[in-house]
Amino acid sequence: MRIIKAIRNAKRLEKENTELRKAIEEALQDLLDPECPPGVRILSTSIRLERALEKDPTEVSSSGGSK
User: Fold this and answer.
1) Are 49 and 24 a contacting pair, CB within 8 Å?
2) Three-state helix/strand/coil letters over 15-42
3) CA atoms within 13 A on the CB side of 6
């Protein structure tokens, strides 16, 4: 039973890492956007990363996929 729980936990953590990696990549793209003023780029990036980090773990697991 503990092994199954550990496997589920590892899968959940892997999914969270993937979502955070995606948010970081998108934030970096925002920072590199030459058409956007620097202040807006920084604010947009900050908000995007903050939302990704504050995402509720139960929200992550219920946003698609199986438990």
Assistant:
1) yes
2) HHHHHHHHHHHHHHHHHCCCCCCHHHHH
3) 3
Residues of the chain under the 70 pLDDT cut: 56-67
Q: Which residues contact 61 (CB under 8 A, 6 or more apart)?
A: 12, 15, 67
In tens, the pLDDT along 17-31 reads 988 898 888 888 888
CA gap 21, 29 in Å, rounded: 12
Q: In whole angstroms, give the CA distance from residue 41 to residue 28.
A: 9
Taking the CB of residue 45, how many other CB atoms lie within 10 A of it? 19
Q: 24: which residues sit within 8 A by CB, 6+ positions away?
A: 49, 52
